[in-house]
Amino acid sequence: MPEGAPIPDLSQAAAADTRPPVRAQRRAGLLVTLVLGGLTATPPLAMDMYLPALPEVTRSLHAPAATVQLTLTACLAGMAFGQLVVGPMSDRWGRRRPLLAGLAVYVVATALCALAPTVETLVAFRLVQGLAGAAGIVIARAVVRDLYDGMAMARFFSTLMLISGVAPIVAPLIGGQILRVTDWRGVFVLLTVLGVLLAGVVWFRLPETLPAKERHSGGVGEALGSMRRLLADLPFTGYMLAGGFAFAALFAYISASPFVVQEIYGASPQTFSLLFGLNSIGLVAAGQINGKVLVGRVRLDRVLAVGLGIVVLAATALLLMSLGVFGEVGLAPVAAALFVLMSAMGITLPNTQALALMRVRHAAGSASALLGTSSFLIGAIASPLVGIAGEHTAVPMAVVQLAAALVATACFVGMCRPWNSRAEGAES
């Protein structure tokens, strides 16, 4: 299929599926884009709205900061493992049924988080929340692969970056304002309501995008075989690992910044929310530059290389400032370096996903599961590492970010070999 070309008419296959043809689905592109944006916004909503409340949770549940950060780790690990299950399920049974089931469980688990009496039960409920929330993440990417190819797919991922980027901008701001009138449990009440609304929109407005004849009839063995073939493709694995470790640098910021900004530099939850929102604006703006300006004009490998280089430089600056190389610095230089790092993610993360999925013709659900699982697992490991030295130093955050960025660059250079020209698209 040529890059950016519309996909073939699947009306005959769709007739047996009782769903509208895929070509008709693409005519409803704006609606589908908004729904997919809502699904990809689920993780930042579940994590970022909760971030300003982390110090309050440590006091409310009488738990140390490292233990409370495990609530982030549990949610992230759940999203990682959930994708390994839901991705192959969506290749076998279609996109709608696994998605709706996952959203239903997500709503229940989020409501239980609001009622958690101890930090241990909160960690457990967050794990279930992550497992169920994985459905939205993995299936949204698979739907994009169902509908788009080549550069059109890369542009669509950048569009999703814009829509889902609204969530991390708005979520901490909402969380900070909620803490003015209620406690951290109120954050989960609002997340429950939003989950119910999203499930309703999916039920009524998102059509099936995987025709019956393109679904896999095999079981666990076929799913594992498909994943094994994907991992055997060295460039696919390289893009997957590069994206995973870049996400680890991002998640080190997500899990540590509430303590760095509020505890070390004395900012209020509202100030933290504003800074977090500004960083998210940088990420969204870079994503739009990527999709509207760079894609189609510059090779995606080159854009990705620039993005990774900027992440390495920003992480290096943060580490030097944290170690006191430049003397005692205030919040402004640290916030500036974090802004640069977050902005670079806007051209790094969507391009690792697009370049990896360009190599996949079939089993988009399994490929999406591998991409998501690797990112969330590596990110889950990064979360507790940033808190091992306590709440009063930013050195662990900077070390984790720099190490993750260097490993991501090494995987990209060593496994993807971007200086070689390749035919994009490998049978999977």
The class by helix and strand makeup works out as mainly alpha
Could you tell me the number of beta strands? 0
From the alpha-carbon coordinates, what is the Rg to the nearest angstrom?
21 Å
The major sheet is characterized as: none
How far is the first residue's CA from the last residue's CA?
15 Å
Mean pLDDT: 80
**Which percent bin holds the helix content?**
over 70%
Count of individual helical segments? 17
Low-confidence region ranges = 1-28, 423-428
Q: What does the overall shape look like?
A: globular
User: What amount of the residues lies in strands?
Assistant: under 5%
One letter per element, helices H and strands E, the order comes to: HHHHHHHHHHHHHHHHH
Please characterize this protein's 3D structure:
The chain is an all-alpha fold and 428 residues long. Helix content is 78%, strand content 0%. It contains 17 helices and no strands. It starts with 10 loop residues before the first helix and ends in a 12-residue tail after the last helix.
Secondary structure layout:
Layout lengths: L10 H7 L4 H6 L1 H12 L1 H7 L5 H7 L4 H29 L2 H19 L4 H29 L2 H32 L2 H22 L14 H13 L1 H31 L4 H26 L5 H23 L8 H27 L6 H22 L9 H22 L12
Helix pairs in contact: 3-8, 3-9, 3-10, 4-9, 5-6, 6-7, 6-8, 6-16, 7-8, 7-10, 8-16, 9-13, 9-15, 12-15, 12-16, 12-17, 13-15, 14-15, 14-17
List the main descriptive attributes of the protein structure presented here.
428 residues, disordered C terminus
